[in-house]
Amino acid sequence: MQNTSETSGFAGRWVSFREDIKVLDCTIRDGGLMNDSKFDDCIVKSVYDSCVEGGIDYMEIGYKASRKVFARDRFGAWRFSDEADMRRIMGDNPSALKISVMADAEKTDYHHDILPKDQSVIDMVRVATYIHQIPLALDMIKDANDKGYETCVNLMSVSNVLERELDGALEILATSEAQAIYLVDSFGALYSEQIDYLVAKYLKYAKAAGKEVGVHMHNNLQLGFSNTIQGIVSGANYLDATMAGLGRGAGNCPMELLLRFLHNPKYNLRPILKCIQESIEPMREELGWGFSVPYMLTGFMNRHPRSAIKWNSSPEKDDLVGFYDKIILEEEA
Amino acid sequence: MQNTSETSGFAGRWVSFREDIKVLDCTIRDGGLMNDSKFDDCIVKSVYDSCVEGGIDYMEIGYKASRKVFARDRFGAWRFSDEADMRRIMGDNPSALKISVMADAEKTDYHHDILPKDQSVIDMVRVATYIHQIPLALDMIKDANDKGYETCVNLMSVSNVLERELDGALEILATSEAQAIYLVDSFGALYSEQIDYLVAKYLKYAKAAGKEVGVHMHNNLQLGFSNTIQGIVSGANYLDATMAGLGRGAGNCPMELLLRFLHNPKYNLRPILKCIQESIEPMREELGWGFSVPYMLTGFMNRHPRSAIKWNSSPEKDDLVGFYDKIILEEEA
After folding, report:
1. I need a surface site. Which of A34, A48, B245, B252 has the fewest CB within 10 A?
2. pTM for this prediction
3. Can you tell me the mean pLDDT for A127-141?
4. ipTM
5. How far apart are CA A110 and CA A128, in angstroms?
6. Residue B4 lies in a domain
7. Are A115 and A264 members of one domain?
8. Please, what is the end-to-end C-alpha distance for chain B in angstroms?
9. Whole domain around residue A159: which residue ranges?
């Protein structure tokens, strides 16, 4: 029984499911921000296999970063996502899972590094852009679209953008070839009422242009999953999640929670749990993602989590009051 | 600027605050389910001090359990909450913080163990009842009220109660002396749309009788905080939370998240963080509360977390797929 965006009422929502929803796993891409994208092949293969068996729609395997910006010997393979590396994991990807890469504006040598689609296992290029980079992002989206790829666009740090400028940005992005525009809660700072308001705004521009809206949520306030649910209720159809919530800082919406919530019988939880058990949880102590008070405080303050990431990997990590005092003092500046 | 339950609209909600909201800390009471209520005095004193300094409205210090049901030598002081034990922590409680105890139906020798108010530092008795115990609960509420206490009632496991019986229960509880009726998500199984629906139902009965509605949420699906927010948005004015989410299984709505969300300047976050750092986090490894896949699975299945608590304290604890297979097989029965 299909549940459209228009269905409302208590029994109409979680008991049923919405067929047009797409789930994107970005475990390796977003998690790569915690380890310079240095994942062993066996980890990447485990995530790939579990996405295939779990019925996930897209797997974002890494960044397509420029070698002119990122030193090849300092970062792992998944910062660059070369064809040879991807094919070592998945061959020609003989599955229904689509492969995505992220292309950051100003950090991607896209004319050179993004090959024509018929030479690549990549299916989709997601362009990530701050509001001041939109003209460049539009050119990147067009380039990828012309080469034969699906495209999406992630507009970052919207919690720090003035509303009239956000409207302007969405109006322009709606003219691009991107099939979906993502609401990205970069700092994990948004409450559900804000998600509802913003998704409605994104939908106004996106739907008029025949596009979908996506959501990418962080867990600084333990709202990664619930804000993704709010995105669904508000009409977003592209959903980002990661295995065990692995991601920068407090991490992301956990795939294991999202899949079960969606109730679409095409998704399977067991292979996801197997991947989490065998490949993701064993990295937790070293990578140290997940909710903690310092991430909560940067979230509440609508700030980049970099100061909390640094604190959490220092000998002071258990001094929660110390971090609070530090960040409150900085606020005076 | 006061924000009443009736205020709606984006800017009217989180930017302001609602003065009639009361926050109840139940760290020691609910956390006592993970250690047979055996907390050292220094831990209980730390929670008490931080509640006083943090501006919390109520602290639930423990259960008022019957010695005929619970062996005094197997459980710690906070299963019984004797006057001498409480006064060792707080003297005559020379503060604005009110002290609450929980009295479980059928597990409390209430005629004998609950003293007249003028002999006690307790301010409020919260009666916890399953639906089949309501006549007894009504007598317990009346007894406490007659002795001079504030009273509340927690109706447990509502996610397993048929709707027409829930309506009957609320109709009866609305005739009691309790100042608030709590919606309790015992198994951490409810989504925000269900919270919204249920709080509205509780309010219908409670408001007509001049009572408030409270919410007590668990974190099995990482929704403890967000469901508490949903409760606030839906009109609940009594809110349970615990330091660092300490509580049975996946734990509760974390106090540190809730206080900052509420934006009422009478609340202070720093003493809460100090308590978490010095007294709560050092217990995490031994007590093992907080989100994990086994708790997620019992939540999704709307079951008591006891099988997950047992699994998480066994040598199999990291075998997530093993627990999934076990619980799926049990479902066949």
Report:
1. A34
2. 0.94
3. 97
4. 0.92
5. 13
6. no
7. yes
8. 56
9. 17-287
